[in-house]
Amino acid sequence: MFGPTGRKEKKLRGIDEKTPITNVRYVVVDTELTGLDEKKDCIVSIGAVRMTGGRIGLGDMFYRLVSPNKKLTADSVVIHEITPSDVVAQPEIDTVLAEFLDYAADDVLVGHFISIDLAFFNREMKRLYGHEIENVSIDTFALDEWLRKRLKSQAYFAKALPGYRLYDIATSIGIPVNSSHNAIADAFTTAQLLQRFIPLLIEAGVHDIGELLKRGKPFEGGDRFRITGDFGNF
For the whole model, what pTM was predicted? Predict the structure, then answer.
C-alpha cells in the first residue's frame, strides 16, 4: 500500500491499530551524526528510551557509540562532543544497528524530526538487509504542530515558539533541558515531550495507535532545517 507521497506505507507489527495509545510500547530514539548528508555522513551514536504509554522506562535505555567510516569534523564535535578518541575502539554501525533492532523489536519508533534519523538508519538497513527499517514511526514535531492547531486554549500553546527544534518545544511546555547535546539525553527529552502530549492527544480525540500514526507522520520537510548548516538540537 502506498501513501499520498508515493512511499510505501509501513504497517504495525504485532500491535492492533485499536490499541489505546496509553498501552502501546514506544522506543524514543535520537542519533548523533558526522553531518546531515545521509549519502556521505555517518551515525556516531544512538540513544533510545523505552516507554509504555506515558511511562518512561528509566531502567530500559539503549546507548551506543559507533566507530564511523568518515572522519569526525570539528563542526560536528562541537555539537555532540564525541571525539575521535571516544569512538576509535567502538563497534561499527553494522554491529550497533543489529543491537538497536533487537532492542526496538516491534515497538513504535518516536523521534523529533525522526525523518532525519530514519534516513541514516534506512541507508544502512538497505546495505545490510536489503530493506528499510520495518517499525512504524511518529514525529513529535508533527504531533506538536497538530496539537497547537486544535488546543489553542491550552497554556502550553498560548505563546509563539522561538523555533521548532526539540529544545524550543520542550522548554515551551516546561520540560527542563540540559545544555549538553547527546543522543541519550535528547531521546529522554523527546520521551518527556511524548509523555506530556499523550493526555493532550486524548483530549483532542486521539485514542488509539492507528489514529496516532495518522497525526504523527514523520515530517518529510525536515530537509528545510538543514539549509542553516546547523544540525544540533533536532
Answer: 0.88
